[in-house]
Amino acid sequence: MKPFDLHLLRHGPPLRTGLMLGHHDEPAAPGAHRALVDHAQGLGAAEVISSDLSRASDGTRAIADARTLPLRIDPRWRELDFGVWDGKPSAALDPRQLSNFWSDPDANPPPDGERWSDLLGRVGNAIADLDRPAIVVSHAGAMRAAVSVFTGLDHRAVWAFDLPYGALLSIRVWRGEGNEPARGQIVGLRT
């Protein structure tokens, strides 16, 4: 199969910053989608896909409308579920638990939250369903998971990527033969 480009855009700034925002549906700040629409101009895409959380999906709708592209909502592109930490400032959390999570998010997931490997699995499944150029508006964790799926880098390596609000990460994707996984090469990062 011919390679295609996957453009991952991080949603714009949320209304309230500094929180552990996973599945908590914090809306985007006013005007947050303007930069997303600007970043999406000129990107080759056959569709626009979004996390189902409003801080991503509202910006995706703006892109789809501006580009007249079909829009698909896919909850597999959500951020990591921070469980009981979701929506709280990190300063309000037990520092030891938080440190253990950052060190090993599989062995120490947030209380009632999601393991890193679970995020990798759902983002990997979302990627496996792609077969044409797309713009995906998502979250920093899901974008890092996509890089990990394509490169095999562990959480420490991909968490070192600086992905500020509105960051654009473009990956060239080659579908695997038979049961082989897709391969990807990062072709651009714009912040």
Describe this structure in words.
This protein has 191 residues and is an alpha/beta fold. It contains six helices and six strands, in the order E-H-E-H-E-H-H-E-H-H-E-E. Strands 3-2-4-1-5-6 form a six-stranded mixed β-sheet, sandwiched between helices. A hairpin with an 8-residue loop joins strand 5 and strand 6. It is globular, with a radius of gyration of 16 Å. It starts with a strand and ends with a strand. The mean pLDDT is 92.
Topology at a glance:
Blueprint: E1 4-10, H1 34-40, E2 47-50, H2 54-67, E3 71-73, H3 95-103, H4 116-128, E4 134-138, H5 140-151, H6 155-159, E5 168-174, E6 183-190
Parallel strand pairs: 1-4, 2-3, 2-4
Antiparallel strand pairs: 1-5, 5-6
Keywords:
31% helix, globular, 6-stranded mixed beta sheet, 18% strand, alpha/beta, single chain, 191 residues
N-to-C CA distance: 30 Å
N-to-C SSE series? EHEHEHHEHHEE
State the secondary-structure class. alpha/beta
- Helix run count: 6
Tell me roughly what share of residues is in helical segments.
25-40%
Query: What's the arrangement of strands in the largest beta sheet?
Result: 3-2-4-1-5-6
Proportion of beta-strand residues: 15-25%
Biggest sheet descriptor: 6 strands, mixed
